[in-house]
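Amino acid chain
________________
===
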Amino acid sequence: MNGWLLALVAALVLAGLAGWLLRRARRPLGTPEQRGAYATLHTVSLAGPSLRQGLTRRGAEGAVKHVRDLLGASGVALIDRTEVLAWDGSSRHEHAEAAPRLAAGVLDSGTTAVVRGAPLYCSDVACPHRSVVVAAIRDGSAVVGAVLAFAPTSPPALVRAVEEVAAWISAQVELASLDSRQSQLMEAELRALRAQISPHFIYNCLTAIASFVRTDPDRARDLLLEFADFTRYALRRGSEFTALADELRNTERYLVLEQARFGDRLKVSLRVAPEVLAVAVPYLVVQPLVENAVRHGLGGQTAAGTVSIQAVDAGPEALISVEDDGVGADPEVIRQALAGEAESESIGLANVDARLRQLYGDAFGLVVETAPQAGTKVSFRVPKFARR
C-alpha cells in the first residue's frame, strides 16, 4: 500500500512538473519591445554581410529584401548615381525603373525628400506605391547612391526610419571602402617590399654562382635553382597569407645564397616547432627580417656571425623571432624607423611591422631588442587560427 501511495505521489509530482515546463515553454520570451528589438537586430545582421561588399549590384541584391523588412515598405529600391542596383517589392514595378529620376534631387543635394502625386503616377489603380521617401547613401562626404522606400503614405516615422537605414548603409559602404583601401595599401607595401630585393643582392648572388661554374659546376647549378625559386616566390601574386613552412623554406633559399657569398662567416641556427609549420603567416614576413639581420647585423663586421631563427608554439599563437649577434643598433634609431619618423635603410622592418599591425592589431607589431655592439633580436606573434 505504501508503495502504491508513493507511486501515486511521484506521478502527481511529475505531472505538475510537466505542466509547469509546458506553461514556461509557451510563455513569450521578453516584452514585445524586446522581441521587436531582437527582430530588428537579426534583420540588420542578415543585411550587413552583403553591404560590406560596398554599393555594388551583388551587395545590393543580397541586402534589399532585408532593408525592406526593416522599413515595412511596399517596395524598396537601392540605387547608385546612375542605375537601379536592386529592387524588392510585390513585382518589378514601373516605379523601380523610375527610381533614378525620383532620386535625382537627393543625389544632387544629399537631403532627404518625400515624393507624392504626379511624379508617382501609376497605371495600376491598385498600386500601393503612392509615396516614396528618398534618403542619400554616402561614402564619406560624397553621395554615392540612395535608398527609396515606397509606401501608401509617408508618415514622419517612416521618413526617420529611412534616414536611419540610409545612415547605416552608408556606414557599411564606408567600411567596405576602407577595407578596399587597406587591401590596396597592403598590395602597395608588398610591391614595395618586392622592389626592395636589392640589386646588389642579385648582383652578388649571380657573381657567387659564376665563381663556382668552373670549380664546382654542381654547386653552381644548385645555387642557380635556389635563386630561381627564391625570386619566383618573392615575386608571386595571390593570397597575402602563406604557410609558415613555405615562408621558412624561402628564407632558407635566401640564406643558402648568402652563405655562398659569405662562406664560413655566416652561420645559421634554425629551431622550429613542428606544431606551427602549418600556421598561416603574412607573405614575406620572415625573410625580410633575416635579410635585415644579414645586411645590417653581420654585414658591418668582419668576424663570423650567426643568424638564429625560432618559431615556437605559444598556445593560441606562434612566436617567431630572428636574432643576430652582429653590430646591433641604437634603439632610438630603430624606434624612429618603425614609426616612420626618420629615413632608414631598414625598409623591411617598417614594412613587416606595418602589415602585422594592419592584419592583427597594434599588439601584434614587431618587438625589437637591440643595442650598439649587442646584436639584434626581432620577434612577433601571429594568431594560430587567424582568418585567412
Summary: Residues 199-383 form a domain with the Heat Shock Protein 90 fold (CATH 3.30.565.10). Residues 6-11 have pLDDT under 50 and may be disordered.
